[in-house]
Design the sequence.
């Protein structure tokens, strides 16, 4: 079914994608929260439509380039979840004005709020703002439910009407340190509590806080309840990958993206024989986030191109820029996978793997149907 | 000088680039070999012109997308150095015919030679071919100066006139295991000898072998002599990076590419305070090839944006998709690098870092002058 295609190439199984999307929508309905899908992995309007069951609902992005792309494609309610610097406001303003979108911006610093207010006033721009609180990852965010949080809210309120405080958000990225539902569930509660307690404090002090935003795929999958949360962000559930699989967050048959690669060599001269693929460090990325809990994941799991069933336990163990080395138990593999044959590789970390490609080749019912473009850059 | 630019962004210092290019040309003149620059790092016609001092001489590429890009831009003598599969010949033929270029293809397998001959005959195409020999890296290539090599040459000759044997090539990638000129020089000699002995055997058996091709930047920098070699491939010398610096292959002031990034956060809640940059795993890549010999290189060295002087010994220690975390000794760094200020990051491995960007912002005499596009994908 892949004859005549250039490789390496990014394949997206739309049936799996739709199943993943529907499952997370149902989960969010059950949890009583709005799903604001994070599109930093997919970077595709076609995927975004499937995430929201055909609608252009609220979305999350990680770059202003994504914000611009989705705004141009008709999305109106866009949370840009990487903390903004005041120097980026002119571009954010342009995106809002040019496309009639509304950007929600994130900050975690009092001085930044004041500088943003000044910049917004100069531009004549208005932005909704979420304050990021740090629920323990220490990547970004201020202390939850703290006087510093209240001070940031005050600094934002002082910039009215140019800045409007819309709520709080947090991200329990430290949940990736576990592959056991029990601690992930505990961190989901830590994440929920950090956001909800922050929102409650702000409301007590007279600041409105309509949005209480948490989440990433693992905490949403395992959370016991999300009372007080209004909306959640997650993205990788749409595609899944070995990083999610290794943490028990998805099943193998949920992984919707794979890299089509060609066997370009049979190497007999190393310690063990190896297949050489035309998918290396650029085609797969050098992310090995799955390997903490799946030590043999290598740079990806090698599968039959047609069925996506794993070929034994073959993985891409070495990568050079354009070469991937796959050790095989014996040279009989060279007979079943001659030079010129193709395989598909399940990615270690789909966010980084997908970033190398300009488009998806879309499978439906096992047949290639369309090509969906994706955006990139900043 | 970088006010108003979106970040992250790839900056190329053309003065450093020109110096690096001139030095390698002089080195190759001294060694008596033709330089066929490898453009897998730069992926840019503007850089390629500087590499060859304004000419469109012989070049090396790692993908057919690069071959197509350079052929369309007027290059005529293109070595595609990743082993070809017969399934890719139609595209290679198209590139030759559409653009009047000549592709040199690489293979290391007897059956592949026969299959390529058949495919070329069906297409009515003619290709020059190099046989790859394995000088010890075991990535790809057949045994140097072996009967198997002679058999592959025979298989190619049997496909005349569709395939024309043009010579041999090899690549001592295992030289990256050292940061000492002595073993790198020894491996340069192993690499030279593998190629030259292979060419001599083929000539003895009646096969022409006009091209004897070796090299990568470290072996070319340290080789004592290259007698019998006709041409060399190297690419990273044009840009350099921490991987080269850590192996003693370049000086800090040779590094010509850097990533311009904005400070978007001051994190006080971790074990140590950290600057948060808007350059993370996508903007820098997750390659840490420098860290074998420069354990504190992190994902890149943080420098003053204007002067490119290192800021203390600050490095990007953690990366998320769009966040880079830079631990700082104390919070006084938050005063000197407020939110919204910019820094430049010297990349750990430039080949992978550059791949995330669609263009270079070019500095000349310390001033931004042009934007040079780069190609990507496959």
Sequence:
């Amino acid at each position: 079914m892949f004859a005549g295609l250039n490789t390496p190439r990014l394949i997206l199984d739309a049936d799996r994608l739709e199943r993943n999307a529907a499952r997370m929508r149902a989960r969010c309905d059950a949890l009583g929260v709005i799903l604001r899908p994070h599109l930093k992995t997919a970077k595709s309007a076609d995927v975004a439509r499937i995430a929201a069951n055909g609608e252009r609902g609220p979305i999350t992005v990680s770059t202003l380039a994504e914000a611009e792309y989705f705004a141009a494609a008709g999305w109106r309610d866009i949370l840009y979840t990487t903390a903004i610097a005041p120097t980026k406001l002119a571009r954010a303003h342009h995106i809002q004005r040019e496309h009639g979108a509304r950007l929600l911006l994130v900050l975690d610093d009092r001085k930044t709020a004041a500088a943003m207010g000044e910049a917004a006033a100069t531009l004549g721009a208005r932005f909704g703002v979420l304050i990021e609180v740090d629920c323990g990852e220490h990547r970004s965010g201020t202390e939850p439910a703290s006087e510093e949080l209240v001070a940031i809210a005050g600094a934002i309120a002082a910039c009215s009407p140019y800045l409007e405080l819309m709520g709080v958000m947090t991200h329990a990225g430290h949940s990736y340190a576990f592959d056991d539902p029990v601690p992930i569930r505990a961190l989901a509660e830590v994440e929920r509590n950090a956001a909800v307690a922050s929102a409650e404090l702000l409301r007590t002090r007279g600041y409105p806080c309509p949005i209480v935003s948490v989440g990433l795929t693992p905490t949403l999958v395992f959370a016991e309840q999300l009372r007080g949360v209004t909306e959640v962000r997650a993205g990788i559930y749409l595609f899944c990958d070995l990083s999610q699989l290794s943490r028990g967050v998805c099943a193998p048959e949920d992984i919707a993206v794979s890299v089509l690669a060609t066997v370009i060599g049979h190497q007999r001269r190393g310690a063990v024989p190896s297949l050489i693929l035309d998918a290396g460090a650029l085609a797969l990325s050098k992310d090995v986030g799955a390997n903490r809990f799946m030590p043999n994941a290598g740079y990806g799991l090698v599968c039959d191109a047609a069925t996506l069933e794993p070929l034994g336990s073959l993985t891409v163990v070495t990568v050079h820029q354009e070469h991937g080395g796959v050790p095989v138990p014996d040279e009989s593999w060279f007979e079943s996978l001659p030079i010129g044959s193709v395989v598909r590789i399940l990615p270690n970390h789909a966010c980084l793997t997908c970033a190398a490609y300009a488009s998806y080749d879309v499978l439906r019912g096992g047949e290639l149907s369309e090509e969906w473009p994706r955006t990139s850059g900043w």
